[in-house]
Amino acid sequence: ILKHERLIQKDLESLDVIGFIACHLYCRLFGDTCSWCLSPASRPLMYVPVFFRWWTYWFKVELSIPREWVGKEVHLLWESDGEGMAWRDAQPVQGLTKEGEKNSYILTDSLRDAEPHSLIVYVEVACNGLFGAGKSSLIASSDSDKKFTLHKAELVVFSRDVHELLVDFEILVDMAKLLGQGNQRSFQMLYVANQMVNLLDVTDSCTFSVVGESQHTIHAMGHCLIDSAWLWPYKKSICKCARSWVNVVRMMEKNPEFTFVCSQAQQFEWVRNWYPGLYTQIEDYVEMVRSEQPFCIFWLPDTFGYSAQLPQLMHGCGIRWFLTQKLSWSLVNTFPHSTIFWEGIDGSQVLTHFPPGNSYDLKGQVEEVNKGRVNHSATLFGFGVGRGGRTQKMLDRLKRMSDTDGLPRSGVQMSTPDRFFSVLEKEKTQLFIWIELFLEPHNGTYTTQAQIKKGSRECDRILHDAEVLSSFVLTQKNTFQHPSIKLKHLWRLLLLNQFHDVLLGSCIQLVVEDAMRYYAEICSMGGLLIKDAIRSLFGELLPTGPETEESLLVLNTLPWERTEVISRTGAKTLGAIVLPI
Predict the structure, then answer these.
(1) pLDDT value of position 374
(2) Which residues are known catalytic residues?
(3) Domain Glycoside hydrolase family 38 central, which positions (predicted)?
(4) pTM
(5) How confident is the model at residue 28 (pLDDT cuts 50, 70, 90)?
(6) CB burial class (10 A; 0-12, 13-18, 19+) of residue 507?
(7) DSSP state of 54
(8) Which end of the chain is more exposed for a tag (fewer CB within 10 A), N or C?
(9) Band of the pLDDT at 313, cuts 50, 70, 90?
């Protein structure tokens, strides 16, 4: 290895899944196997959507675990096209999406005699890809000729020791690559990795030297960004949330130290309405880590830009901390810092952090966390857009990094947003103040769907007027029933349509149709609420006869005087309108 360090490193980096199969390491990841009961002639199984527009199939999987597997870890191995989720006892238990490294469901960590050895699992499979169902591009019509395949459905014994060895190997190779040729630690990593490949004895344990003296700390938080709508309609996002969050619950069951961050309240509402059993489990974990301090963080991983007025809006709402990611995507000018004070138009400042991993969709690899720009930085790890969030493999990588020579001594620790920003507050005297945050990749992002922006503005005005008038009536008549529940529902529909890929039209046609349907509902119901408020407030002044259509009531719902021209239909002759003062 002294003579051929570059060659050894190149060979180790090229040892992908295919390479490991050749040397029988990945093959040993699963031990004993019970294949599915379909005849060999029907494998792989093709399933075609009857009506292609987002069709869903359900598979009933009857399992019988052999008695000789007692004491072993047993998985249901499932590989199919599309997005899947396993159900057991009428509850979602595991997202199954092969693109997100999530293709198995753990039936038991260690099979016991007393456990049922025969059970039924249902697998729900959606006939669409992670990024929609377009024929040749992301935003395109559905592919009516598309076929989906169930590649594998097997009952297997999972070899945990092989899994641990594979994670160790990946960390060693990643570190050797990152530290560079000639580095002493890089040489040690290459040597150990080379020995692992040569020996290929999965029963051997791998040890590391004493950790280094760096004081940098990585605050790791599980994360799963799911666009509420983009290349799929709203209803598919509901399923994506369930598939991803049920995986989060399973991870927390096995890893008590694991923390997960989700900032999209609408998605919690979806899960509560459609998957109440799962939502109850989420509530239990939220209650365990609930902070007594008020949550004062603006969490915005994905956006199309940064308005200069945001700092003063945050400051006015009592928000002191801001986390975002997209600025690291700049095409020309790399942003020089990961933590700054962002100053707004009026001088308001918020403590701002950009996770140095350059993505909100990280995999927990060495190159994503070894960023020594400040003493503390965050890493958001987990597959997004419905690929199941974080995986056990990601968490195992981060555990290795927390006690690995060549990486920060304080290492990688599971953290929470408030804990992380509280630590950053202690370093704020060292930070730069930045005024303009310019996002290069989305420069000049307008819209291709003007009707959506028009609908958003019109519905905003309608709901504003309905709320102002209803509140004014309530101050005059205490018998008036304020429509707060209806207004909350309509406001939430409007805000849902303000999701960045919806409002700007960077979405498929199905989403546009959903948005316009919501706008129509807001206009209809909002208009009725305005009429009810006016009738309650000025009922005695409004005519009730045939002349009603000729009457005119002028109201100003804004807090300043207005002078405007009012147009109305009528006879083509001059006339005068007298407005009483």
Answers:
(1) 54
(2) 302
(3) 440-519
(4) 0.72
(5) low
(6) buried
(7) T
(8) C
(9) very high
